[in-house]
Amino acid sequence: MIDVVVLFFLFGLAAGLLRSELKLPVALYESLSVFLLVAIGLKGGQGLASQALVPLLPQLLAVVVLGLVLTLIAFLILQYIGRFSRADASSMAAHYGSVSVATFAVGVNWLMTRDIPFESQMTIFLAVMEVPAILVGIVLMRGVSRQTRWGALAHEALLGKGVTLLLGGMFIGWAAGPDGLAPIKPLFFDLFKGVLALFLLEMGLIVSHQMDELKKRGLFILSFAILMPLLGAVLGIGCGILLGLSLGGVTLLATLAASASYIAVPATMRLAIPEANPVISLAAVLGVTFPFNILIGIPLYHRWASYFIGVAG
């Protein structure tokens, strides 16, 4: 049976394609984003309160390397096969080397609905994997020079709204622990799925607006936006198995590796690489990769993870 939150996404997509007047207030969309980021951070922090942090450092290094590899692969494909300009290839590669909070949230919900456990440090992986791709994308475009405003770019990448909310929620969850979080659990934990459903309704509306741009960009964008997530998922599964993660953890890491950023990276790329056309990246990420991942990708990655863990075992 298809998940109810995905039905909300399809509802928004259909309403947008049919030119409905349905539109959520901008302030509500912003509020839903804040809620989801804080809720995910709290949940991850609650899990971290029960384990030591030092043993996680090798895992964090591994997922950073995973993000860097994905960025470089995407750049090479876009520039040498897709014949993109260096600016567009660098910017779009950064999108695909980074990760999507909404896709992660859908993946978490998918596993929770099926009572499949996963490691609490996955939220840290989410926060850590947002940043490296941004820096690599800038280096691919600019190289390393004295003119690069590394301070401003690092501030934008490390202290952007998404990363700040995730890390802040995680710290509060870690500091408070399960008992301390109990008073706010009805709001941030019990309502998570309902808020995610409303968020995906708006995402469906946004995706519907990218369809015209996709038609203009042709077959390469469509192929890249599907094949790149599949490649990312395979690499994510391999990394998760090497790290010794559970089936749920491997599925979530594959989902992260297959996802692409549409919030933090576009905002940073506009500052760092103004020559790049943001419409191309957003059309691929939002028009193809995001719906592909939540409709087909996550169940597929879980099946692949089950198979490869069985082979590795």
Question: Which CATH class is shown?
Answer: Mainly Alpha
* CATH topology (level 3) name: Na+/H+ antiporter like fold
Helix fraction by DSSP (H/I, runs of at least 4)? over 70%
C-alpha end-to-end distance = 30 Å
What's the overall average pLDDT, rounded?
86
- The number of domains is 1
Q: Can you tell me the overall shape? A: globular
- Helix/strand-derived category reads mainly alpha
Q: Uncertain segments of ≥5 residues (pLDDT<50)?
A: none
Number of strands: 0
Multimerization state: single chain
Q: Architecture, according to CATH?
A: Up-down Bundle
| DSSP summary: helix tally | 16
Q: Order of helices and strands, N to C?
A: HHHHHHHHHHHHHHHH
Q: Classify the beta-strand content into a percent band.
A: under 5%
Q: Whole-number radius of gyration?
A: 19 Å
Which short descriptors sum up this protein?
313 residues; mainly alpha; Na+/H+ antiporter like fold; 16 helices; 78% helix
